[in-house]
Write a structure and sequence with these properties.
By secondary structure, the protein is an alpha+beta fold. The chain is built from 26 helices and 29 strands. It has a 10-stranded mixed β-sheet, with no helix packed on it. Helix 12 runs antiparallel to helix 13. It is globular, with a radius of gyration of 28 Å. Bound molecules: zinc ion.
Length: 874
């Protein structure tokens, strides 16, 4: 028997649930009546429960005959076994359970969140986070996504508080001094989507979206930060009703900001919960990136109301169906809402994060068999979200947006209120497109990795001698010449690291939808082809000038150009769209990490981007400089700083410190990003001094400084901070008026280079001064910082047990990603020993992926360290 799946002889159809949380003692009392369909006679019923004590269990049939059960809880398997003295006959039964539990502080199940008000008084609220398998911590249940049921909930609370759940309140009364709040029945849905929030909460005025009231809910005093989130909430809800061709499946929608929240947000039907930075924002004082984050997360969660909530994966292996679609539609909605944000170009940054992990030998397919819940938790990663969404985007572009949407509509209509497998999506898309979808898509979803498409010219034609073709600046007169495109799997390391098996399907080809733009005689033409074999040849027209593979930038693959083809492209960067330039630089940097391109060639290439004005292209460039910063010796760091100044300086000089009238939002973000790069990575004293002036001026007139510049100023001063500045920032972190301000000061505190202050910051990650939702990320930042990593790594080794106790599991897992920055052979050895000796398992392949990323960084140091030093010394 599968130890993780419940038998199907008894399944629930309805839960009548009553919970009474006590915010003083951090406990709750619960009662539930579960309507069961018993399919075969049984003396035993198995369901999920953990960290609950079940005080009574009895079952009744229609006639009223009641049998009581013996209860056995098994904490290890998170199951509860009810045994009856006589068999329960097939039919409908009502199981009544009385239980108690704890409002824990681990940010999962039914948990407590504490926060301080403006006057510094502490308050507590209770909230839930059930995905993937933590509903069983709040009430005994059949905690599997396929076992959908109707939930009819009642919360019994302190009359001074407010209670929320998935549906509207149908009745509220006071009983024995307690407020009894009853909620409407839900649609049939999975346990992981049930939500409760109880506390001192305020709600905005509802806006009606096609009849659905939509509100933002937060702790008192924060309503002024709700307008932006509510606006994208309303916009995306309307857009999805049109896109999906299905009405919103709930009766109301609350977007709820929770002061302590482990993930970014959670798509509970009708009661979406968020960490505060992902929902609450002061539009006039926020950077573009901060606004984009709120828009993204709200649009993402709303998309789930259909993809995930109305139609749900049958089991956790299909999680990508939820997450990839929500990520894809988040882009569709935000791009439609704010076209000037060029959201699909910025999506290149997300795609590149997926290409990074998926280029590891220790990657995994988007979908793979999942047995244990722990492995499902490890699925919440860039492969599920970003690779999944990239693959959908590639498919949408290949099939055409209208055809793709028609397939999505078929799928939702056919499976609403039910559960699906990936094959169900393939057949819906197949019907809409009349294309063999599984043949194309299976390689992207069920296989690990992705192809490197190499492009070269083939000169072996009688009238095109080879020696001319490989001269970089040869005039383009290769009449009758061919473009040769080949595919092979891309990996950074030529061989799998020790302990990693080579992939079983090595050598199998992907079906790669290619868009190739050929420029000849001053004219562009786009060729579309499906590369199925290892190699394809395209005849090139007379007057051939250049070729760009992955035209439009939607493909989930990398391109490697033969040197002459690359030079042709670099000579005409102006003719490339921003996403195409992004991919060009990103693929070139990956080629360096993989040992396919010399680092010095890449550094030469970056010199051609001094005039670049796209923030995403700059994100790759500065990201690669930051990686070099982690492998360079301390003594050589000033020379790398000089290179950063040389590359970044010209654009900063042109942009200045103040926005020009009429300037768009993304340019203002670019200014902030580059000032920060110059002041931190470039370590430019003049920039740091100017930042101090701006900071002083801001005290008298905050509105005088653009938010993007302001955020950069805080980051730069955090990096340059002495003790006085550090203490000032710590104070401002504690008294911050918006979640964004709080984060800026928190990470500025973490950026300080003074060793004694780094130690203080590390201590604060465990003494309660930083929230456990943030503390692991602060440690991660320090582990990846060249100034903090030695101390942070010592601290992690010493305090691991304490971290393991305090931090939510997701936070701990993300924290460990910081070890990828410990890029020396000595540290690498220590990291391996530490994780092995402690037998630390972060779920799935997470730890192996971190170790392989560390290997790539150390290998880069070993291979290119001396070349880098020589190049910088020139
Ligand atoms: Zn999601």
């Amino acid at each position: 028997m599968d130890p993780y799946r419940l038998p199907r002889n008894v399944v629930p159809t309805r839960y009548d649930l009553r919970l009474e949380p006590d915010l003083q003692t951090f406990t709750f009392a619960g009662e539930e009546t579960v309507t069961l369909a018993v399919r075969e006679a049984t003396r035993e019923i198995l369901l999920n429960a953990v960290e609950l004590s079940i005080e009574r269990a009895e079952i009744a049939e229609g006639s009223g005959r009641t049998l009581s059960a013996a209860v056995a809880l098994d904490e290890a398997s998170e199951r509860c076994r009810l045994t009856f003295a006589e068999p329960i006959a097939p039919g409908t039964w009502r199981l009544r359970l009385v239980f108690r539990g704890t409002l824990n502080d681990k940010l999962h199940g039914f948990y407590r969140s504490t926060y301080k008000d403006a006057a510094g008084r502490a308050h507590t609220l209770a909230a839930t986070q059930f995905e993937a398998t933590d509903a069983r911590r709040a009430f005994p249940c059949w905690d599997e996504p396929a076992l959908k049921a109707v939930f009819a909930s009642t919360l019994v609370i302190d009359p001074a508080l407010v209670a929320l759940s998935n549906t509207a309140v149908t009745q509220e009364r006071v009983e024995k001094g307690r407020k009894v709040v009853r909620f409407a029945d839900t649609i049939p849905m999975s346990t992981y989507l049930v939500a409760f929030v109880v506390g001192e909460l305020e709600a905005t005025e509802a806006v009606s979206v096609g009849g659905t009231p939509l509100r933002v809910v937060c702790t008192p005093g924060k309503q002024r930060l709700a307008a932006f989130g509510q606006a994208i909430g309303a916009y995306s809800l309307k857009l999805y009703e049109d896109y999906y061709g299905q009405p919103y499946p709930g009766d109301k929608l609350d977007l709820v900001a929770i002061p302590d929240f482990a993930a970014g947000a959670m798509e509970n039907l009708g009661a979406i919960t968020f960490r505060e930075t992902a929902l609450l924002v002061d539009e006039s004082a926020a950077t573009h990136a901060e606004l984009e984050r709120v828009a993204d997360v709200v649009a993402h969660e709303n998309a789930h109301m259909w993809f995930g909530d109305l139609v749900t994966m049958s089991w956790w292996n299909g999680l990508w169906l939820n997450e990839a679609f929500a990520t894809f539609l988040e882009m569709v909605a935000v791009d439609a809402w704010k076209p000037e944000w060029q959201r699909w170009t910025t999506f290149g940054v997300s795609r590149s994060a997926a290409l990074l992990v998926d280029g590891l030998h220790s990657t995994r397919p988007i979908e793979y068999p999942v047995a244990a819940p722990k492995d499902a938790d490890a699925m919440f990663d860039v492969l599920t979200y970003e690779k999944g969404a990239s693959v959908l985007r590639m498919m949408e572009q290949y099939l055409g947006a209208d055809v793709f949407r028609a397939g999505v509509r078929f799928y939702l209509e056919r499976h609403k209120f039910a559960n699906t497998e990936t094959g169900d999506l393939w057949s819906a898309l197949g019907e809409a497109s009349r294309q063999p979808i599984p043949a194309i898509m299976d390689g992207w979803v069920f296989r690990a990795g992705y192809p490197l498409v190499s492009a070269r010219l083939d000169a072996h034609k009688p009238d095109a001698p080879a020696k001319d073709l490989h001269k970089p600046d040869a005039p383009a007169k290769e009449r009758g010449c061919e473009l040769v495109l080949t595919q092979q799997r891309f990996t950074y390391l030529p061989q799998p690291p020790a302990g990693e098996k080579p992939s079983a399907d090595a050598g199998t080809e992907w079906q790669v939808p290619l868009q190739v733009r050929v420029t000849a005689g001053g004219q562009d033409s786009v060729r579309r082809l499906l590369l199925k074999e290892r190699e394809a040849r395209l005849p090139l027209p007379a007057g051939f000038e250049a070729v760009l593979v992955n035209e439009g930038g939607h493909g989930f693959y990398r391109v490697y150009y033969a040197p002459d083809l690359l030079l042709r492209l670099l000579g005409r960067l102006d003719a490339l769209a921003a996403i195409e330039r992004f991919n060009l630089v990103n693929d070139a940097w990956a080629a360096v990490l993989a040992g396919l391109m010399p680092l010095t060639d890449y550094l030469d290439l970056t010199a051609r981007f001094r005039g670049e004005r796209d923030k995403n292209v700059w994100a790759v460039l500065t990201g690669s400089f930051a990686s070099l910063n982690r492998i360079i010796d301390d003594a050589d760091r000033p020379r790398l700083e000089a290179l950063v100044r040389d590359r970044v300086g010209p654009v900063v000089a042109a942009l200045g410190w103040e926005p020009k009238p009429g300037e768009d939002e993304v340019t203002r973000q670019l200014r902030g990003d580059l000032l920060r790069a110059l002041g931190v990575l470039g370590n430019v004293p003049g920039v740091q001094a100017r930042a101090a002036e701006v900071y002083a001026a801001h005290q008298s007139d905050p509105s005088a400084v653009d938010a993007n510049v302001w955020a950069a100023v805080i980051a730069i001063l955090g990096h340059a901070a002495d003790e006085r500045r550090h203490d000032d920032f710590l104070g401002r972190f504690k008294s911050a008026k918006t979640p964004q301000e709080e984060q800026r000061y928190l990470y500025a505190v973490a950026a300080c280079r003074v060793p004694a202050l780094v130690e203080q910051t590390l201590r604060r990650t465990l003494n309660g001064e930083f929230r456990t939702q943030d503390a692991p990320f602060v440690v991660r930042t320090l582990l990846s910082s060249v100034h903090g990593r030695a101390a942070a790594w010592r601290f992690v080794q010493e305090k691991w047990d304490e971290m393991n106790r305090q931090y939510p599991a997701t936070g701990l897992r993300r924290m460990c990603e910081g070890v990828t920055g410990l890029a020396t052979p000595e540290w690498e050895g220590q990291v391996h020993r530490f994780f092995a000796e402690r037998k630390i398992d972060l779920g799935g392949k997470t730890l192996r992926q971190y170790l392989e990323q560390l290997r790539i960084a150390v290998a880069l140091r070993e291979r290119e360290g001396a070349n880098l030093r020589r190049y910088l010394a020139k």
